[in-house]
Amino acid sequence: MKLISKQMPITKIGTNETELKYVLRTVLSGTISEKDVVNFCHNHTMIPRTTIKSALESCCQTIGHYLSLGYSVKLGEVGIFYPTTKSKAVDSNTEAGMAQLEGINIRFRPNSELLKKVNDATLELDGVYKIVDHDKKLYEKVGSSALDDLEDDDEGNTSQGGSGGNDNGDFVG
Q: What domains appear along the chain, each with residue ranges and CATH number?
């Protein structure tokens, strides 16, 4: 898994002051489609693709059904899906009710086995980036690791490469 260190504005607790700090973010490698998952499962189990696709669709429908009834859904070594609500706080019990509801969310808590697999992944730092324009989500590469953030050229000037990333952790370069 690739990581980048990005300069981000961090708000100090209890104040409106922000300071720029470097934080690690994952570099997304892309999105795996349902078709890719079905093909991977087929290639590793030889179960027919149509059977895998039908089972996956049925599983998703079942998860949605039980979540809509207020149940959490535990999937073995994967984790637990559970519904939560977002609502407005009100001052009195006469204001309390469905009008408070702003939305229903689905959360996921991974199983310890899944977390272990991800935590055991080979990690690689793919660059250190500073903010060029936070509003436009533009970043500039200033190094490849914490030890060699800046390289000196022959004249002793600091050279900086130009690449960027966005707030989703995507690498653009």
A: 2-28+121-172 (no CATH), 34-111 (4.10.520.10)
